[in-house]
């Protein structure tokens, strides 16, 4: 694999076209340039096949326990920046789904983990992860990623906890 330097504007464009957690710059560019994407699609398909299976058992609990019942938009708006809102949403999801919140541990990037039960695991998974504790939980999350990545992480968490695609997108858009 070759490495190239690109300007910030091009990097932002590539990052903004990410469709799934862990999608590499090469996969994004292949898709955008309509080149052969057989291997990347296969990897994405395998990831997508796991999520619905993990989400299906939760459908019954989700009907009763819904994060939208406890998520206070005024409090959310008072959070400091994207990281504050990100942590606030994750904390609300944890409060709502304590029994199955461990599913977030399966959400990973290509080269690093996004969630852990201790700070040290996140630090060990890559440089500059900036781990933060999800309030009132035993879970930690990597916060040194762009807003697009954080939105994808919230979306993936919501899906893994049994929310519909529409509900996951609504949560994602709160960032």
Layout of strands and helices, then pairs:
Elements: H1 8-16, H2 25-32, H3 38-55, H4 59-64, H5 73-78, H6 81-96, E1 115-116, H7 119-124, E2 131-133, E3 140-142, H8 147-160, H9 165-173
Helix pairs in contact: 6-8, 8-9
What does this structure look like?
The chain has 175 residues and is mainly alpha-helical. It is built from nine helices and three strands; from the N terminus they run ααααααβαββαα. The chain has helices at residues 8-16, 25-32, 38-55, 59-64, 73-78, 81-96, 119-124, 147-160, 165-173; strands at 115-116, 131-133, 140-142. The radius of gyration is 16 Å and the shape is globular.
Q: What keywords describe this structure?
A:
175 residues; mainly alpha; 9 helices; 53% helix
Distance between the termini: 34 Å
Element order: H for helix, E for strand: HHHHHHEHEEHH
Q: Helical proportion? A: 40-55%
Q: Quick one: overall form? A: globular
Strands, total number: 3
Summarize, please:
By secondary structure, this protein is mainly alpha-helical. The protein has helices spanning 8-16, 25-32, 38-55, 59-64, 73-78, 81-96, 119-124, 147-160, 165-173, and strands at 115-116, 131-133, 140-142. It has a three-stranded antiparallel beta sheet.
């Amino acid at each position: 694999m070759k490495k190239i330097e690109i300007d910030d504007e091009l990097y932002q464009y590539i990052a903004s076209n990410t469709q799934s957690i862990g999608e590499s710059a090469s996969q994004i560019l292949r898709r955008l340039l309509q080149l052969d994407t057989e291997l990347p699609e296969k990897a994405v398909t395998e990831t997508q096949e796991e999520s619905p299976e993990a989400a299906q058992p939760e459908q019954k609990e989700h009907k009763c326990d819904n994060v939208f019942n406890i998520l206070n938009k005024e409090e959310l708006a008072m959070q400091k920046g994207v990281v504050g809102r990100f942590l606030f949403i994750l904390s609300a999801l944890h409060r709502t789904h304590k029994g199955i919140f461990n599913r977030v541990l399966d959400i990973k990037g290509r080269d690093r983990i996004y969630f852990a039960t201790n700070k040290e695991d996140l630090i060990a998974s890559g440089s500059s992860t900036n781990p933060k504790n999800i309030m009132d939980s035993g879970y930690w999350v990597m916060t040194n990623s762009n807003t697009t990545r954080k939105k994808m992480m919230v979306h993936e968490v919501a899906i893994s906890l049994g929310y519909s695609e529409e509900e996951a997108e609504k949560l994602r858009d709160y960032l």
